[in-house]
Amino acid sequence: RVLFRSTADGNVDFGVDPVTPAALADDMKSQPRNREQKLYIKADARVPFADVEKVLAAGRTALFEAPVLLTSQPESPQPGAVVSPKGLEVLFVSPAGSQPVEVQVIVDSAQRTPILKVNNRQIPWTNLQSMIMQIFQNRPEKVVRVKADGQLPFAEIVHVIDVCHSAGAKIVLAISEL
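-> structure tokens emitted (178 positions)
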């Protein structure tokens, strides 16, 4: 397991060591790891998504294939129990032959609120899951490509990913080339 953690106050850790965002890709490459190891990303809900995108870009450069965005867990483990991390797995590349549904989360510059679009059509947030499920009714591959504005809080993007996962979709996270 490889863990990246970012907090709202700007502190960044890779594993247990503090790291600067600029040095993150080099640190990932320099640490020996099993090819199958997952990159677990834990970020404060208030962190701008652009900060998480930097970690995802570094992870892609270091050849991690499917990072996992850690989520809070409602159950409390027994004292002393080892608990496996849980989260939402995302991909960098669409599976071969798939035709992803495009979900965009963007900032409305006039109202400073997030807007949600599915295949370039604006929809209410409450309709996301039903629209995704309707689109997937006759598709063998259920893939959603999520593109998000870096200004938005990480929690907004995780919410969209979670809703799409609950509709049975694999998530491809489009990240900016940094």
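The first strand starts at residue 2 and ends at 6.
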